Amino acid sequence: MDLGISGKRALVLAASRGLGLGIAKALAAEGCHVLICGRTEEKLKANVDAMRAAGGKADYVVADLADAHFVDQMLAAVHHTLGGIDILVNNTGGPTPGTVEDMDAEKLYNFFQSMVVRVITLTNALVPLMKTQGFGRILTVASSGVFEPIPNLALSNTLRGALVGWNKTLSAEVASYGVTANMILPGRIHTDRIDELDGANAKRQGKSLDEVRAASVKAIPAQRLGTVEEFGAAGAFLCSAQASYITGTMLRVDGGAAKSN
């Protein structure tokens, strides 16, 4: 299917690896000019080179969501590299694992800034451009934990949940301008982050990594982990021309793992 977004300009945050990179690659394959950001230049350059080798148009900027100047840096990059914006994919790295009691004030504040405040501030700065041109796609990557809190990920469950109400409110405010705002919620997608979390859970439970992984897969109706490519394709569809009547929604990509409707 041609998603009807060839030539569109897309900014994808935290896309040096994992879920952000999966969406970036899918958008590049659809003909978008993709700008990715992340903290590691070596990884960013390799990913951009790969997208270009596959026939895509891609650039990168080294940036850290934890930096107080992140939003200004992104706005400058959008202006100078893309010349505007059609698609914004809000993605952030996951916070450290832990319980609610592990959420001290400093940790909560710092991750709130990088995972919530800067996402909202950047989106607010780019929305007027989308409204003026009568087209925009805002896609925010969160977690299945906003539906069913994930054990030992209290900080993630809390902060990503804050974006749910924001996204729904935003979607209603911009819908009449041809701008959509949706969320995509990964379940167990096989990324480096999942390997890191499984390793932490194995240590916490006193089990082997294989035992923890087998138990998690057993709880998924699809009986396997999802792939980054599957997740990226779902994200690209929500950014497509065909998805123009889909807004204010949360799409779960979890192999049927969630027990709620």
UniProtKB/TrEMBL annotation:
Matching entries from Gene3D superfamilies are given as: NAD(P)-binding Rossmann-like Domain (3.40.50.720)
**Keywords for this protein:** Oxidoreductase
What SUPFAM superfamilies does its record include?
A: NAD(P)-binding Rossmann-fold domains (SSF51735)
Task: Look up the EC number in the record and give it.
Answer: 1.1.1.100
GO MF terms here are:
3-oxoacyl-[acyl-carrier-protein] reductase (NADPH) activity
Question: What family classification does the UniProt entry report for this protein?
Answer: Belongs to the short-chain dehydrogenases/reductases (SDR) family.
What is this protein's name? Answer: 3-oxoacyl-[acyl-carrier protein] reductase
Q: Highest lineage ranks of the organism?
A: Bacteria, Pseudomonadati, Pseudomonadota, Alphaproteobacteria, Hyphomicrobiales
